[in-house]
Records
---
Amino acid sequence: MSSNKVLISDKAAGKELELPVVKGTEGEPTLDIKKLASTLGYFTYDPGFAATAACSSNITFIDGGKGILRYRGYPIEQLAERSTFVEVAYLLVNGELPTENELNTFRDELTYHTMVHEKIYSFISGFHYDAHPMAMMAGVVGSLAAFYHDKMDISDPEQRQMAAKRMIAKMPTIAAACYRHHMGWPMIYPQNKLRFTERFLHMMFSVPSENYEVSEVAARALDLLFILHADHEQNASTSTVRLVGSSGANPYACVSAGISALWGPAHGGANEAVLNMLNQIGDVKEVPRYIEKAKDRNDPFRLMGFGHRVYKNYDPRATIIRAACYEVLDELGKDDPMMDLAMELERIALEDEYFIEKKLYPNVDFYSGIIYKALGIPVSMFTVMFAIARTVGWVAQWLEQSETPTKIGRPRQVYNGPTERKYRALHRRG
C-alpha cells in the first residue's frame, strides 16, 4: 500500500474522501475504493471490469502496451526457449523454479496421478457421440468432486496441493478420452514412461492395431503452446475460477466453471474461430478480397486471430510461436491448401498499411490454430487444448486465493428496471 492518496470531492453533498493508492511491484497504481460507498454513497460502474483490480496476485504480470508477459517475474521468452511445461507448471504453482530434485519429484507426482477412475470412462461413454468435447470436459471435471470427496478440505494445505496436482495430471487423460469417445475409438491408458506432451499425444492418436511413434517435433510444439497458454492474469476464465472459489467451492467445481467460461468464442474459442474463418475464405485467391472486407466497417466480416484486447502493439506469445509454426509445417511436411491460405493471409496483413497502422498483428490464436491442425487435432478440440494448459494457471490462482483470506465475490450493478409497483390480480391484468 502506497502512502499516496487521491482526494474525491462531492461538492453537492459537501463530502470528501481520500482514497489510498495501492501500488504493486509493477503496473499501474490502483485506487482503493472500499470506503467510497459508505462515505460518499457511490459505487463504481465498470462493465467488463476492464478498469478494476479484483484481487492482488503474485503469479502473472502483463504490460499490454509494451508487449510484456511474465510468469512469477520470468519473461515468457526465456521460459519458452529454455523450460518445459512441467517446469513452468511447478513455477506457477509453487512460486519458484524447481531444483533438479524438486522437478523430478513433481514430475513423478504428476505421472502417478495420470490415471482416472474407470467409472470416468463410463461417464464419458454416456455422452452422445457427437457431443462437443468442451461440453464433456466441463461435465467430467466437475464430476471429479464425486470421486475425491474425501480429500477436499480446502483449509488443509496438503489437500489443496493434492487437488492441484490431480487436476494438472488428469486433465490430458480426460481430454484424450473425450476425443476418443467423439471418434468412436477405444480408450487408451496413459503411458507413464512418456513425457507430459508425448503421453498426451499417445493417448490421443495411438490405436491398438499398430505401434504409434510420437513425433518429437509435435511433442515440443505442443509443450511450447502449453507454456504460452499456461496463465494470462485475470482473464474471463481465471476470474471465473476465482469468483467461484471465493464461495469456498471445491477445486473441481472451480475448474469446471473455468472450462465453461473458456468455451466462449470470445475467449478460448478464438483459435477455433481462426480455422472457421480460413474455411470461409476458402482459397488463396480470395485473400485480397477478404482483406478489403475486413477493412470495411460496414462489412460484418472480421479477421480472427489478429490484434488483442490486452496487447496494444504485439502479442509476445505470437512472436515465439510463429517460428515454431513454420518448424512444425516444415518438419511434418504438411501440404495443406488451408496452411497456404493462412500464410498468405499473414503475409498480406503484415505488409498492409491499414493493419500496420492499427497494429493488427497476428496473435497467438492465429498460429496455435495452424499448429493444431498440422498436428492432426480437430477444430472441436482446439479449446480443449487450451484448457489443458490453462488448468495450471487456474489451480495456481485458486491456490493463491485459498491461502489468503478472501471475501466472497459480490459485484454490484446499476439497476435500470421498473421502480416499485403494486401487484395486480390475474383477472385485473389487461
Note: Residues 77-263+379-399 form a domain with the Citrate Synthase; domain 1 fold (CATH 1.10.580.10).
---
Amino acid sequence: MDDKFDRDEFSNTRYPRREERKTVSFGSGQTKVEKVIPSERDDLKEEPVYFAEDKEIPVRKERSMQNRNHQRNNKRNQKRRKKRHLTGFAKGAIILLIALIVGGGMFFAMNRVMNPPVEEMELSGTTVTVTIPDGAGTETIAEILKENDLISSVFGFKLTSKLEGFDGTYKQGTYNIDTGMTKRQIMELLQSGKVAEDVKLMIPEGYTVKQIAAKAEEAGICTAEEFLNEVNNGTFDYEFLKDLPERQYRLEGYLFPDTYFLAETYTAHDVIDLMLKRFDQMYTEEYRNAVASSGKTLDEIVTLASMVEKEIKLPEERARAAGVMYNRLRDGITLGIDATVLYAVGKTAGDLTQDDLNIDSPYNTRKNYGLPLGPISNPGEASFKAALYPEDHKYLYYVVEAVGKDNHVYCETYDEFLNAKAAYNASAQ
C-alpha cells in the first residue's frame, strides 16, 4: 500500500485498556468470582469487588429494600386472600341457612298437602281393623301398621310422627283404618281415640281358654262352643304355634290377656287371631333369644308362667316362686301345684277334695313328676318374664302365710315347710 502506518503519529495517543478479568478460586466446591481490573483512566469509576465467603454473601442495599418490599406485598396479599376466604365462608353459611329454611318449609307444605287432616280425607280403600295396646310406643304402633300393610316403612312413620309432634299422644284401642289413609291421617285417627268401640272384651291375666270363651259369648261375639272349636281347629299362621303337643285346648297359654275393642263384624277366628297377634308382639327378640339359651322350649316356659300366674298374686314374688319350681324340677321332686289339679278337674278356684288330688291326669302335679302337659292359664308378660328369668335361691317350698293374705313363706327344708303349714292352719281357726 502507498499509505504507511505511522507509528509515531499514534505513539502519544493513549487508549483505554480493555478490562482484564481474573478468576480467583477459593477451594474445591466454592464460588469463583472474577476480579475485574479497570482501565488506567481516571475518569473510570472503580467497581467494588465481592468475594464469596464460607457462610454468608453480603447483600446489596438495593436487594434488601426489594426483599422488604416483597415481604410487605406478601402480607397484603395474604390478608386479601384471608378476607376473601372469610367472605366466601360467610356467604356459604348464609346460602346453606336459606336452603334449610326453604327446604323445611317445602317439606312441611308438601307433607300437609299429601297428608290432609282426617276430616278432609276421602277414603277409597278397604278397612283394616287394628288394635293398639296400652302403653305402645311409636315404634310398636308403626310395626303393627306395617304388618297390616297400612304403611310402607316403620322408619318413615316414626320420623313423620316425631317431626309432626305426634309421639306420646296415641291412644290405645281398636281402630278401623282405611287403606287409602296417609300416614298423617292415621296419626290423627290414633291420636283422636275414635276407636271402633262396638264391642269391648276385657280378658284378665290368668284366665283359661274356657273362661275366655264364656266372655266372648257374653259379649255377643260368638258362642262359647264356637270359640273353643276355633281354638282347637282354626288355622293361625304364627311361628310360635308350631310343634305344639296334642292336648285338650291347643292354644291354652297363648291367648294374650288384654282389653280388646272389637267391631261388630268380628268372629271367633278374628278375636283369637287378635289375641295371638298380641302374644307375638309381647314375644320380643330379647325373649326369643332368652328362650333359646334357657334349655327349655317356649311351650315349657309358657307352662311355667301359667302356674306362676295362677299361684302368685304379688308381683315381687313371681320370680321367687318360679325359682322354687325350677329347684324342684332339678331335684326330681313333684311340683305339687294345686292350681294344676284344679285345672285337671275343670275348676278355676276353690278347695280340693281327696278325689281331686288323686285324679289321673297329665296335669296333676301332685302325682306326676315334671311339668304338666301344657299351660293351665293364659299368663301376662310379668309372669312370662318371671318364668324366663327365675330367682336364684335354695327354696323348695312355699306356703301362704295366713288365711286372707297373699304373701308366702318360703322354705328350704321340709321341716320348715311343715311349721309354715301349721301356722297357716292355725290362722284359719
Note: The first strand starts at residue 20 and ends at 24.
---
Amino acid sequence: MKVLLIGSGGREHALAWKIAQSPFLSQLICAPGNPGTASLDKTENIDIKANDIDGLVSYAAGNDIDLVVVGPEEPLVLGITDRMKEAGIKVFGPSKAASQLEGSKAFMKDLLAKAGVPTAFYGRFTDIETATQFIKENGAPIVVKTDGLAAGKGVIICETEEDAVQAATDMLSGTSFGDAGAEVVIEEFLEGEEISFFALCDGQTVLPLTSAQDHKRAFDNDEGPNTGGMGAYSPAHVMTNRIEEIIIRDHLEPTLKTMAAEGYPFTGVLFAGLMLTKDGPKMLEYNIRFGDPECQALMLRMEGDLLDILDKAAETRLSEVLTDISWSKDPSICVVMATKGYPGPYQKGSVIQGLSQIKAAQVFHAGTALDDKGNLLAVGGRVLNVCAKADDLERARDRAYSALKQIDWPDGFYRKDIGWRAFCKEQKAS
C-alpha cells in the first residue's frame, strides 16, 4: 500500500514509525513530515503543509495513494476527509461535520447532552454580560474554554470569579485566542483524576484501544501555564477493567450511536478526555485524533498491524479486526523536550546534538528541521519526544531520563516528574 500521512509533529513521527512496520506498506509519504519521519525506511517527506487541503488532495489524486491518514485536527476540521472522498481517495478520519466534535466545544457539549453522556454542567456564551451572570451564579472554581481550536491551550481553570470573568472577556474580545474565542463554554469544575482513553471507530463499530495520562502544565509539580502536553505515560495508573467498561458503555458507544443518528457518523480516532470523579467517569472533552504526546507512548505499546487496522476502519470493516490489536504489558513513557520560553514566546534555530548516542530510548521528532549543513535545529515549541518502555514504569522513566541527559541542547527544557501520579500511588501502597 502507498500511504499519505498528513502532519509534522511528534504524533505523526510515532504513527509513521508504527505504520512503517507493516508488511502491507510499499511507500509512506509524509506531508510535510519532519527529519524524524524522513529517516524511516520506505518513507519520504513532501513539502505540502497539513492545512493545504487543495495541495494534499491534488497530490493524493495524482500519485496513486491507497490510503490517507490524517494526524492533526486542523485539516480534519477544514474538511479534508470530505475532499479526499469526493476525489475517490480512501481516507481515515472523520468528516467535516463529525469533526465539530473537537472543532466546537459548544457542539460537543450539546451532543453529549443529546447522547446522555455524563459531563460537567455548562453554559455557552457569545457576550460577556450573560457569561458574567453565569459565573456569578455558579461561583468558583470554574472552567472557561474557547469554543474553537486553540492548540490544546484554550482551557483556563479559574480559582476566582474575577479570574473567570477576565478569562471570558479576553476570549470573547479575541485578545487571547483570536476567532477561537468568539464563543466560550463555561462549565463546572470537576474534581478527580484526569485520564485519556482512545478508540478507533468506523461509524458503526468501536475498537477500544488503551489509556494514558497527560501532563499539561509546563513545569514540575503541575505548575505554570497549560501547554499542548509536556509528557505522558501509558497505561494510566487509575485505569481498571471496570472503569474501561463504563467508559465504553456510557460514553463512547452512546456518542457513536447519536452521531450516526444525527447524520454524521464518526470514522477516526475518538480521544476521550475524562475526569474520574467520586460519581464515576465524566467526559471533559472529545478530540478527533490521537493525543500528542499520548500517541507516542501508545505506539510503543501497541502490538499488531496499525496500517491494516486503519485501512479496515476507512472501509467500515473494523468489526473484522477487533482482536488484531493487543497491548504490551510493559508500560511506556514519553517526555517532551521543549524550547525555553514555551508555551510563551521562544527563539527558533538553536542546534540540537547528541541524538545519535541514544540507544535505550526512542526519540520522536516534533518541532525540528535540518539546515543546509545537516545540523538539527529546533524550530517549534515542543521539539523532541523521548520515549521508553520497560517492565515497570520506574525503569521506563529511568531510561527516558537517562536518554534526555545525552541530548546536548542548552536552549531546551523538560519536566522531570512525568508519571508522578503513578509513583505517588505506588509509594502510598507501599
Note: The chain has a mean pLDDT of 95.
---
Amino acid sequence: MKLWQKKKTSVTEQVDRFTVGADRLWDIRLAPYDVLASKAHAKMLASVGLVTDEESKQLCDELDNIINMVTQENFLIEDDFEDIHSKIEFLLTESLGDVGKKIHTARSRNDQVLTAMQLLLKDELSEIKALTKDLFDTWMGLANTHKDVLLPGYTHLQVAMPSSFGLWFSAYAESLVDDIVLLNAAYSICDQNPLGSAAGYGSSFTIDRELTTKALGFSALKVNAVAAQMGRGKTERITANAMGALAATLGRFSMDVCVYMSQNFDFISFPDHLTTGSSIMPHKKNPDIFELIRGKSALIQGLGNDFALLGQNLPSGYHRDMQLFKGKMLEGIDELKDCLTMLNSSIKEVQVRTEIMADAKYTYAFTVDALNELVQQGVPFRDAYKQVGQQVEEGSFKTPKKVAHTHIGSLGNLALDKIQKKFDKQY
C-alpha cells in the first residue's frame, strides 16, 4: 500500500526495491515517534473542527493500541507497505474505517518524517549525554585515584615533561565538557516542532501548530514551513557534527591507550578478558577494543561530511535524496552509543604502572623543572636554559629531588572540583 498510489499508478518491483531501500527496517525505530505525533495531530484536528471530538478519541485510542504493537520485537513493516506511515494509516483504517482515513488531513509524510526523526534525535541525544556523563564520572574517578602516579608527557612523540595519570584522565574528562556543549546545541536544533509544515508549504486548513508543539514537548515551533522542510538533512548534519566531536575525543583517548599498552611504553595494561591474542604469536595481548573504538570513531566523524555532501547541491523543497540521511544517522547513533558503553566499561579495569619515571630514559623529562629551580634562585631564564642544556650535552644532568607543579590544572593541582563544576553547568 502506497499512500500516493492511484488506480493507474504503479511501479515495478525493481523501482520499489530501489526507492524504498532499507527504510522499512529503519522505520521500525521511528514507529513509536510517528504514533506519538499522530496522536498530537488527531487532538489538534479536533481542536480546529476538522474531526469531531469523538473521532479524535477513537483515533487516539487506536493509536494507543498501535504503539503497543510497534514496540513489540516481532513488529514488521511488510513489503506491501512503503513505510511506517502507510502501515499505521492502514491499521487505523482497518480498525476505524473512514475515521482512520481522516488522520492524514493537513499533513504530509514530509512533516511526519521530520517530526518523528526530531523526536527520536532528542531521545537519542539525551541517551548519548547520559553515557557521556558515565564516562566523565569514570575518568574523573580514575584521575583522583591515580593523581599522584607520574607519567611521562610527550610532544612530537618525544619525551617532554612529567605528567601524571591524574592529569591524563582529567584532561579527557574536561574535553567532554566541550562535547556536551555541542550535543546541547544539536539538541536545541532538534527541539523545534516541524509538524504542520506539510509538504513544505503549509496547509490551506486553519491548523493550530502551537498546540502540537506543546503536546509533543518541543520547546519551540519551527515557524516557517519552508524552513522546517529545509531542516531535513541540516538537523542530521548538525547532530552528526556534534557526535563527531565526541567521537574524536573517544578516538584520541583510544589511540593513547593503544600506545601506552605497547611493550615499548608499557604504562598500562588490562585483564586478559579485555584483550585478544594472536593466532601465531603466543605472547600477544592486543588492544582490539580500543583499536575498534578508534576506527569507529573515525567513521562517525565522517558522517558530518557525508551529510554535507548529500545536501550541499539541493535547492529548497523536498527531494528524495533526503531519505538517505535516515539510515546513516541511526547507524552512527548506534555505533557511538556502543563505543561509549564499551570504552567506559573497559577503562574501569585499567591497570596502571606506578614507577614509570624511575626509568633512566625519562631523566630528561625533568630538565624544565631543573631550569625553573635555577630561575627561582635568581638565574635569568635564558642563562638557566643554557646551563641545563650544557649539562644534558655533557651527560652531567641530574634529576631534581622533587617535582613541584602547583598552578591550577597542573599535575600537583588537578582542580578536579573546577572541572566537575564546568561539566555540571553544561550537563
Note: The domain at 117-135+169-196+220-354 is CATH 1.20.200.10 (Fumarase C; Chain A, domain 2).
